[in-house]
Amino acid sequence: MLNHIDINKMNRLMEENRDAKQIITQLLENHQTAVSTIAHEIRNPLTLVSSSLQIMEAQHPEVKEFFNWKQTMDDIQFMCGLLNELCSFNNGSILHHSVFSIEKLLKNISVSFAISLDAEDTNIEFSSRIASGMGDFTGDKIKLEEVILNLLRNAKEAVGQRGHIFLSAQRDHNRIIIKCQDDGCGIPDHIIDTVFEPFVTDKEGGTGLGLSLSRRIVEAHGGTISAESSDKKTIFTVNLPV
Ligand SMILES: Nc1ncnc2c1ncn2[C@@H]1O[C@H](COP(=O)(O)OP(=O)(O)OP(=O)(O)O)[C@@H](O)[C@H]1O
Ligand SMILES: [Mg+2]
Description:
Layout: H1 4-16, H2 18-59, H3 69-90, E1 98-101, H4 102-120, E2 123-130, E3 136-139, H5 141-159, E4 162-172, E5 175-182, H6 210-220, E6 224-230, E7 233-241
Parallel strand pairs: 2-4
Antiparallel strand pairs: 1-3, 4-5, 5-7, 6-7
Helix pairs in contact: 1-2, 2-3, 4-5, 5-6
The protein binds adenosine-5'-triphosphate (ATP) and magnesium ion.
Adenosine-5'-triphosphate (ATP) is lined by residues 150, 154-155, 158, 182, 184-188, 191, 195, 200-203, 206-212, 234.
């Protein structure tokens, strides 16, 4: 497993040498594809096990009283979630389109996010301004939700215990412009140009996949995602064609 020092060395090598950058990027992509494929293959039988247990529980409700039954079910759900996450990186550009209201989606996300902040009892102030009448949008609702949640999670991690997060969305002709702003720690200078590349992270325990996956999803919709950060004000902008 690469540690932080190895990753820094690798990043330096990639900055200094174009050929090395190309080869390492390719290797990282191959590695990620292998991880996603394995995760996908394990997820299939695990989903079967999970469904069988759910049927068993429905037919024989008394099993709920069994020692460790609930814990086992929770563990299986967790493993399914974990494997989903590992698979999703590889599937970032495969979209399942539907027609939906982006206004409703963003308003729902805002409400859930606000509730989750309240539950954690922090001094983070969250506000949103989601324009009405943005019309119908055709795209992958679940994946776009993932993008916005990634941005909000990063903003939350950046502000820590105290700060402001602001989510806005409006329509400009045939584009939807979504902005996620925060007044947290700001994006470190040394990674501002590479934050959308895989495995770029300054967090202990971070995978550095959140933004690269988000960029894949946005680009698969024909859109763009960009970041600006100065004086502790960070703005991520997602620009999607309608
Ligand atoms: N709102 C933000 N403010 C400051 N820095 C940010 C912000 N969003 C992202 N970053 C920087 O970009 C890096 C990459 O973000 P990304 O979401 O891809 O990975 P991560 O958050 O480190 O890990 P993971 O998403 O897997 O938990 C972060 O480690 C952080 O340094
Ligand atoms: Mg993240």
